[in-house]
Design goal:
The protein has seven helices and five strands. It has 147 residues and is of the alpha/beta class.
Length: 147
Amino acid sequence: MSLVRGPVREVVAGMYLFDSDTICNILKKRPSRELLERLKSVPSSHQFISTITIAEIVYGAMRSQHPEHHMRNLEQVLLPNVNVLAFDSKSAYICGKLRHELEKRGRTISFADMQIAAIALSNEMTLVTGNVRHFAGIDGVTVENWI
């Protein structure tokens, strides 16, 4: 099952890892139309989120005025409809190297973003995010903004 229900219009060869901002956009009252259309074109077997994204969503839910609502969306709407990738040892190696390279260049990004980028790299996936700037300058990461 896809993040967004509807017929798959076109089989896409790529695999996609969705960042937190993209997932949160889907759950808005008025999500991005472009995002919804793109999601419909990607088979559910090619749609992924990371355990890091789950942690970010839980954190955001707990900070909100309606944590129960957001947790229900996570548990009943999102998680049953998406594939989840863990931050594994391969991703950890890539993350460590990535952090070192960024520091050498005087660039810093959040550790969560480094972990998400490492998961995308280790699984050869396109990272879908509205925060393209956060991932700029990370060698090898393919980033797309569907929002």
